[in-house]
Structures are given as C-alpha cells and as structure tokens.
Amino acid sequence: MPLPIVIPIPASYGEVPLAGQVFVKPDGLFHCGCGNIPEYGGFHPCDRAGKLMAGRRYTNGEENPSWEGYYLCGGCGQVVVDARSLVFPPS
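Given the sequence above, the corresponding structure tokens read:
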C-alpha cells in the first residue's frame, strides 16, 4: 500500500498538527502529526513512494535531477511530504 502524500499546511508556532497532517512553520520547518520535527527524526528526500534518495544536490555538489521535492518523515516513516511548491517555487 502506498504511503499517503501530504501537502504541508502553513501554521503558526503554537499550532500542533493532527496525525496524518504536516505543518510548515513560519521559519519554513516541518512538523509532522507524529510529533517529529527536523531536530528529531528529520525529513529526508525521497520519491513519491517514500524511497529515500539524494536531495537537490549529491554530496559531491552535483545536482540530482531525479529528486522532485518529496520528503519522508523520519519520525513515523508513514508520511510523504509534498514540498514541491516550497522547494521548486514557480518563477
């Protein structure tokens, strides 16, 4: 069964997401409904199916053209965050 793809919801610092939700705080950081934040389990670049991959750039600095802007929640591993509009804003 595929993992759910969630679009992050803009929220203030005091708001807490419900299970299955992901908030993006004013500083641009994610907060998953499982309680995960970047400082704990983190959010890791992945494909639509949740398979981990290199993010925008490889460790050698080269661009990764196959990454589309999705992140897997490192806390629950059950949510794929669709951050395409945040990572690749329309020009």
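DSSP finds one helix and seven strands in the chain. Try to locate this feature in the token string yourself.
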